Amino acid sequence: MQTTVRIRRARANEASAIARVHVETWRAAYAGLVPDDYLVRMTENGQAFTWRKTLLRKQPDSAVLVAEAPPAGQGAPHTVVGFGSCGPNRGSKLAYNGEVYTLYVAQDWQGHGIGRKLLGGLFRTLYDQGYRDCIIWVLAANPARFFYERMGGQRIAERGQEFAGEVLEEAAYGWPDLEDWLRQTGG
Ligand SMILES: CC(C)(COP(=O)(O)OP(=O)(O)OC[C@H]1O[C@@H](n2cnc3c(N)ncnc32)[C@H](O)[C@@H]1OP(=O)(O)O)[C@@H](O)C(=O)NCCC(=O)NCCS
């Protein structure tokens, strides 16, 4: 399955497709981690609105990538099955310049190498924009942290982050040398 999935820049009209994956993966991955209220109030329309603004803003040093699966049949559209976004470190005081903000693969498509491909695409994008290192913040209780460890990330910091009135622990993973990572992974 992974060989047929293509990683590319998101188009301005793909906010709804991204929002669909966003809401689906949040509800599945964060049930029990993030307050139910927060997950219940999330809607595809609301997320699409936010993603549309991000896609139209076109900040030169930020990017949104999608993983696109081929059409299910003749005449059917391509399907967005994952997405990720990156850009400058959003203000944490850690000495890392680049940051991956989001990385999500639709549930039915997880475990087929798409997350690895997307992360590689995000690291390549950051590197090409002049970033030499990268951090990612993840909920400390999210099993996705093992994925980041598998991808060579080093746990470098913790912080409390407020979600719907609750303070949740987040962990930061760091990649201090993107060039080395890209060389080793052939990205
Ligand atoms: C985390 C996520 C992006 C990984 O994407 P994926 O396509 O499922 O992962 P891949 O198939 O590319 O996995 C690459 C490697 O990481 C390993 N891996 C992936 N998820 C893992 C996990 N939760 N725990 C341990 N190892 C994991 C795979 O086994 C694979 O190992 P290999 O090198 O031996 O082949 C995806 O599962 C996801 O979207 N999860 C839910 C949302 C989420 O929590 N996102 C992160 C927000 S910070």
From TrEMBL:
Residues 5-179 form the N-acetyltransferase domain. Pfam families: Acetyltransf_1. PROSITE patterns: GNAT. Keywords: Transferase. It comes from the Bacteria. InterPro entries: Acyl_CoA_acyltransferase, GNAT_dom, MshD_Acetyltransferase. One of its GO terms (molecular function) is acyltransferase activity, transferring groups other than amino-acyl groups. The keyword Transferase applies. This is N-acetyltransferase. The lineage of its organism: Bacteria, Pseudomonadati, Pseudomonadota, Alphaproteobacteria, Rhodospirillales.
